[in-house]
Design goal:
Distance between the termini: 6 Å
Shape: elongated
Radius of gyration: 19 Å
Mean pLDDT: 90
Structural class: mainly alpha
Number of domains: 1
Order of helices and strands: HHH
Number of strands: 0
Largest sheet: none
Number of helices: 3
Low-confidence stretches: none
Strand content: under 5%
């Protein structure tokens, strides 16, 4: 396997990782921004108030996007195995 094939494989892997993590990261960022805004406006500085909604929202988004995530991972794995002969020699 040459360096160009290694770079291409790693590029595909990183793109898949970004796509799979994007919904969870975006939902966590948005809920953190909303909770911080509410805390600032109401002057309530409770630390559990920031953690619990973020955990709940990330869990719900993970459950909603689970079929899409599994489909992307299976498709990526099948494509990797189908192209396996190119990487061997």
């Amino acid at each position: 396997m040459g360096p160009d094939q290694t770079v291409e494989m790693m590029r595909r892997l990183l793109i898949e990782a970004m796509l799979l993590s994007a919904p969870l990261l975006l939902s966590a960022c948005i809920i953190s921004l909303v909770v911080s805004l509410v805390q600032t406006l109401t002057s309530v500085q409770e630390q559990t108030l920031t953690a619990v909604p973020r955990l709940v929202v990330v869990f719900v988004v993970a459950m909603i996007t689970l079929p899409w995530t599994v489909h992307r991972m299976v498709t990526y794995t099948l494509r990797l195995f189908q192209d396996f002969h190119r990487y061997l020699g």
